[in-house]
Design a protein that fits this description.
Blueprint (H helix, E strand, L loop, with lengths): L2 E5 L2 E3 L5 E8 L8 E6 L6 E6 L7 E2 L7 E6 L4 E6 L8 E7 L3 E2 L3 E5 L2
Parallel strand pairs: 2-11
Antiparallel strand pairs: 1-3, 3-8, 4-5, 4-9, 5-6, 7-8, 9-10, 9-11
Length: about 110
């Protein structure tokens, strides 16, 4: 069964950090580019970060560049999103995505004081 399961979301104060994880199963994870998207209430889903299947060239949305870091562990079939210096505008449901149309169920991140 092809599946992506996110975890690590929650509530954090502005300036805080969270680390999201996305565990993959049912497909050859190491051959897939992986991405994190987010969707805030009333807004369209947007790309946050992307990491290729191989290599080190990552891409970030301008709004998170310098604060978020995407990484992957192919031995663990897991992709991560380290989020630092969080802002209230980072509040959203965060989704893991694998090239070809595979989505996770999402994990909620809330940044507020």
């Amino acid at each position: 069964q092809v599946q992506l399961v996110e975890s690590g979301g929650g509530w954090v104060q502005p300036g805080g950090s969270l680390r999201l994880s996305c565990k993959a199963s049912g497909f050859t994870f190491s051959t897939y580019a992986m991405s994190w998207y987010r969707q805030a209430p009333g807004k369209e889903r947007e790309l946050v970060a992307r990491i290729p299947s191989v290599g080190q060239i990552t891409n970030y949305a301008a709004s998170v560049k310098g604060r978020f870091t995407i990484s992957r562990d192919n031995a663990e079939n897991t992709v991560y999103l380290q989020m630092n210096s969080l802002k209230p505008e980072d509040t959203a449901a965060y989704y893991c995505y694998a090239r070809g149309g595979i989505w996770g169920q999402g994990t909620q991140v809330t940044v507020s004081s």
